[in-house]
């Protein structure tokens, strides 16, 4: 059930007169209909009234109340349901006066394709609906990649893409450096390979000591059979495992838990999370929730926990640096989502207390580093404001760049900066299609069109400044594109490389003006522009390299209907490579087991239609 009242001056008494005392969620709206605050309540009437009755509100809280022109209410059956709904609405509307966790990315996992004859280990982010097993979540992509490197050194399980694996005719470099056993060319059988996979799974499940015992037994058995090379391999695996476990193992812990510490200075807070899975520390990460006003640690943690955990796998325990006001409600809601018990604790002793103190020290350090960085960014923003003759510092800036190799695999990047620096959750890449290779103007127009159609539709916030990595030609193309979309009011600045292409000697051009903007090389505003431009360049190059690498692993044989992985592998073995296949005639192709004449004709046509 929803209730709303709108007026020129909001009449809170009239609204409260009809408001229920049931549990639920309320949304406060300003005169433009924008949601500026979302709250939950065990008793809606009391909670909403408290916003307007408190005389000791901070100036920002009073400013929020003064902007309220409507309140919408949704009644729920329980306070737990209200907490779930509040979390959904905060993530959807990102209200100005709520504590908002800026954490849009799904968390990465290690994926093992256990359903395959020769399973692979891989980095995975996104849906976990595919067959196989997933381990995590990990706090960052770097943590996953570090773990994959470690595993590859101990257990030589393949990590290559399936398309690459299916089309090998000889082992790759990973085999040469003993990081893979060559299953792609049958240098190892499924049974022996499966042993390495089973050991990898034991390690990922946190059963390191059981794994060491198993390897020790096999080492002894191999030595008794006089298989000294195999025994030496087991010995090396045990030594490497002990080194890794010594670094990762958390003394006294066996299950899954997170340690969460909070540090605050003014209206800036840091929440530092240490992730422990199966008794092993898999990483840590600092978060900086956005908030307009000052809040105590309890309020910050009460906002952080549902926003962070309710759409992720929830550990069995959360250890907090500060107490929260209604931990029983949070335990119940998290347990309901996890379908098992979840415990929240903060009065700790012994080793746990010491580890939480270390997490708190990391939170303090990260917060101080953030404050120092923000001070630098604030100085650079102010300098940029003066340099460009703006009335006030820009709150949002975007920069586009194009990357390709001789016109192939073109990628455009868009990076976003706000007053706190890079806003990486808003970064986007665009794979450019349907243009003449090397036409950077057409690539820029396509990327801007795709981006700013969404901006015009209100899906994305419009920037105050659009930076283009290029000179007058790129600026003109960008301005024309935005004019056609009805967004010509956005300020466009071109960053043209200087005559010697050295950083700090760029020339800036403003759309609609032929005169360059004079910039001193070490001006703080100029350094900010360099940072934005370099970030756009880095992001574009990374995307282009990923696209190029993916294209390089695609075999032309994959495009042929009816030619599956086994038949492709058979063809490559019989002929020795793509070059030999491309020169074979239909009769030779159809002589391969499993290749009938119709399929052989399709293979022949594919190569000869492409002039091979």
Automatic annotation (TrEMBL):
Alphabetic keyword roster: Cytoplasm, DNA damage, DNA excision, DNA repair, Excision nuclease, Hydrolase, SOS response
Domain (GIY-YIG) ranges: 21-99
Entry keyword annotation includes Iron-sulfur: no
CDD domains cross-referenced by the UniProt entry: GIY-YIG_UvrC_Cho
Cellular component aspect of the GO annotation: cytoplasm; excinuclease repair complex
SUPFAM superfamilies: C-terminal UvrC-binding domain of UvrB (SSF46600), GIY-YIG endonuclease (SSF82771), RuvA domain 2-like (SSF47781)
Superkingdom classification of source: Bacteria
Transferase recorded as keyword: no
Residues of the UvrC family homology region profile domain: 259-482
GO biological process: nucleotide-excision repair; SOS response
Domain (UVR): residue spans on this chain: 209-244
GO molecular function annotations of the record: DNA binding; excinuclease ABC activity
Subcellular location: Cytoplasm
Main location: cytoplasm
Function: The UvrABC repair system catalyzes the recognition and processing of DNA lesions. UvrC both incises the 5' and 3' sides of the lesion. The N-terminal half is responsible for the 3' incision and the C-terminal half is responsible for the 5' incision.
Subunit (UniProt): Interacts with UvrB in an incision complex.
Database matches in NCBIfam families: PRK00558.1-5, uvrC
Cited PANTHER family: UVRABC SYSTEM PROTEIN C, UVRC/OXIDOREDUCTASE
Similarity comment: Belongs to the UvrC family.
HAMAP family, per the entry: UvrC
Protein name stated in the entry: UvrABC system protein C
Gene that this sequence comes from: uvrC
